[in-house]
Amino acid sequence: VSYEVGAFVEPISCAIHAAKAMEVTLGSSVVVVGDGTLGILHTQIAKLRGAAPVILIGKHRKRMEAAQKMGVDHIVNIDSESPVDTVKALTEGRGADFVIESVGTAATYELALAMTRPGGRLAAFGITDQEEIMRLRPFDFVLGERSMVGSCAGVGNDWPDAIALLRFGRINPTPLFSLKVPLADLEKALLEGKKNRELLKIFVLPEIHEWQEF
């Protein structure tokens, strides 16, 4: 694979590990909260495991366009529609079988839980500030028989699995490419990525001398 495609081995391994931890099954509904690179990659692994529908919750236009190009079944813009109402409408009123939180705030964790059906499972993936606390009603877990599993990184066979998926074209990450920048501009690129939330993957290449868009 190319260097650009190979740069996705690590994040894809993280998404693989989360899907294994959740035990995503054929025909199950999956919601991913967060339209960053990892959020979109979570949708791709869910699709490969046979989930249907796969739903992405986001708010960044270019990121959501990239997810659409990669075949996400339904995209919910959190700024213009209710994620909870839309997910319930797409799942016959039940909520999703599996929900992955891939943002890392208490508010988005609470949203993710609200979209998880009775008997469903929530994957805690987004990393919050250490002091951040989410509101949680034990009632929802006990009577709803919901569960939560944590996942943060790919390990062991997740890496060769990620390489195989890229090598044989099961995942095409090119819609996630945003910019190429020279090594000398690394600091500027980091600041640009922080400022422009529409950007996804920025590649730092020592052999180029100017910024290039994909």
Characterise the protein shown here.
With 214 residues, the chain is of the alpha/beta class. The chain has 2 domains: 3-150, NAD(P)-binding Rossmann-like Domain (Rossmann fold, 3-Layer(aba) Sandwich), CATH 3.40.50; 175-213. The chain has 9 helices and 9 strands. Strands 3-2-1-4-5-6 form a 6-stranded parallel sheet, sandwiched between helices. A 3-stranded mixed sheet has the order 8-7-9, with helices on one face. β2 (54-58), α4 and β3 form a beta-alpha-beta unit. The longest helix has 14 residues, at 9-22. The protein is globular, with a radius of gyration of 17 Å. It starts with a helix and ends with a strand.
Main features:
38% helix, 214 residues, 2 domains, six-stranded parallel β-sheet, alpha/beta, single chain, Rossmann fold, three-stranded mixed β-sheet
Just give the CATH class of the largest domain: Alpha Beta
Q: How would you describe the shape?
A: globular
**Which bin fits the share of residues in helices?**
25-40%
| Biggest sheet overview | 6 strands, parallel
* Rg measurement, Å: 17 Å
Distance between the termini: 17 Å
CATH superfamily of the largest domain: NAD(P)-binding Rossmann-like Domain
CATH topology name of the largest domain, in short, is: Rossmann fold
**Reported CATH architecture of the largest domain:** 3-Layer(aba) Sandwich
Summarize the structure.
38% of the residues lie in helices and 21% in strands.
